[in-house]
Amino acid sequence: MPSPYFSVIMPVYNAQDHLRETVQSVLDQSFTDFEMIMIDDGSSDNSLAILLELANHDDRLKVISKNNQGVSVTRNMAAEIASGKFLAFLDADDIWLPEKLATHYALHHRNAAISVSYAKIAFVEPDYLNSPRTYSTVLEHPLTINEIISENPVCTTSNLVVSRILFIASGGFDESMTHAEDQEWLARIVYDGHIICGIDKYLVDYRLSPDGLSINLPAMYDGWKLIAHQYSASEDFKYSEAIFLRYLSRRALRSGAPSKIALKYAIKGLSSDSQGFFNDKKRGWLTLISAGVAMVLPRSTRLHIFA
Questions:
Q1: What integer pLDDT is reported at residue 211 of this predicted model?
Q2: In this structure, are strands 196-207 and 116-124 parallel, antiparallel, or unpaired?
Q3: Is the pTM of this model over 0.90?
Q4: Which of 25, 249, 301, 306 is the most exposed place for a label (fewest CB within 10 A)?
Q5: pLDDT at res. 253
C-alpha cells in the first residue's frame, strides 16, 4: 500500500475519559489519507483496552503498548515507525475540527518550503467544546526564535504539523525535558533556518483542566529558562521573558489556578522588562488589571470573566 500523507501521533497515558472523543475527531477528518499511531505509555486505567477496541474497527489505527517513559520518548518512537510524509501530533484529550488535516495539507501542498505549520486553537472547558473561552493568536509571518521563546504561538503539540524528514533529521523532542519540550524543538528548528508558518483558522480544541492543573506553570517557566539559556549567547531574552511571564499570568487566569499565581507572574513580568510586558499595551494592561482584580473574586466568577 502507498504511504499515507499524514501520520497522526498520539501518546496516551491514563486518558480513558476523553479518549474515544479524541480519536473520533481524527476519524471524522475530511482528509482521509492518514494513519494514526497510538502509543499507550504504561497507562494504569482502561486506556489500552479502549485503544484496542477502536483499532478493531479501522485499519488506519495502530496501537503500541510500552512501559511509561514520558511523552517525548513516546512521540519520538512513533515518529520513527511512522510512514507518512507529514507528522501531525495530537494529545489524548484534545480535539481536532474536521478540516484540520485538509487545511494543513493545502498549505504544505501549495508551498513546499514550509516545513512546519500550526493553526488557531480554542481554550475550552473539558465538557463544553462548543463554547470556547478564548482563542490563540496566529501571526501573519513565519515565526522568529524570539516569538517562540516569548509566547510560543503554537501553544500545544496538538497544533503541530511537521515534515517527517525534518523531524527525524532534527533528532526529535529532547527526551531529557519533561516540560516545554515542544517549545525547545520549535526554537531549535527556527534557529537552524527552517520556516514555521501559521494558518489563521480555528482547528484545535485545547481542554483546560477543571481544577486548574492541566498546566504546570512553574515547570513551564523552568523549561523556558532552560531554552533561553541555550540561546543567551546570541540573544537578550529579558524582553521575551516579560512577554512569557505575561503569558503565564494569562494561562493562570484561563485555567482557574489560584489567583495569587496570576498576580505573581504579572508582577514578575512587569519588573523583568516593562517594555516587553507592554509590547501589546491592551494585552499588558488587561493582564495586569485582571490579575489584580482576580484576587478578590471567587474562582467561578474568575473563570467566567477572565477567559
A1: 44
A2: parallel
A3: no
A4: 301
A5: 81
